[in-house]
């Protein structure tokens, strides 16, 4: 009850396309609350999660996540994760990917606060291959201790036919949204 959602109309419009939705977010605010609230509101919402390397810590985290009454797709093993992501999108569900991690080997350099940053291509690659829209979603703590989840309109991107350029352009687009939220809510 202490979490409010704004912009659900953007999510509904994206879901109306029938191709599922790739929600992009960042390690920003209490981002782990997004999935719980979205599931509580009845949205078919799963978060892509990378577990820690240490087995005991990973097991403890899984236990905590199971209590959250939210859905999770675990990154490892990747083939299984990808199958789950694609199955969710085919069922017209929402898959949330936290896309602000540095990716030296598998990323693409895009501008982030005036500097090139090796950024995850996953949301762009999956979107371009499935036709699923990319919808930015963030959570912000309010001064009174409540939270607001902000759902942005689906990112618009004109396809050039050059797959690598389209992936880079879409990655740059969601990175600009992440940067805007950091500038607006630096705390």
What does the model show?
The chain is of the alpha/beta class and 187 residues long. 40% of the residues lie in helices and 26% in strands. The protein contains six helices and nine strands; from the N terminus they run E-H-E-H-E-H-E-H-E-E-E-H-E-E-H. The strands form two sheets. A seven-stranded mixed β-sheet has the order 1-9-8-2-5-3-4, sandwiched between helices. Strand 3, helix 3 and strand 4 form a beta-alpha-beta unit. Helix 5 packs across helix 6. The two termini are 23 Å apart. The mean pLDDT is 89.
Task: Give a nutshell description of this structure.
The protein has 187 residues and is α/β, with parallel strands linked by helices.
Task: Name a few traits of the molecule.
7-stranded mixed β-sheet, 187 residues, 6 helices, 40% helix, 26% strand, alpha/beta, single chain
- Could you tell me how far the N terminus lies from the C terminus, measured between alpha carbons in angstroms? 23 Å
Radius of gyration: 16 Å
State the assembly state of the protein chains: single chain
Largest sheet: 7 strands, mixed
Structural class: alpha/beta
Major sheet strand order: 1-9-8-2-5-3-4
What is the 3D form? globular
Low-confidence stretches: none
Helix fraction by DSSP (H/I, runs of at least 4): 25-40%
What's the rounded overall pLDDT mean? 89
Order of helical and strand elements:
EHEHEHEHEEEHEEH
Record field, number of beta strands: 9
Q: How many helical stretches?
A: 6
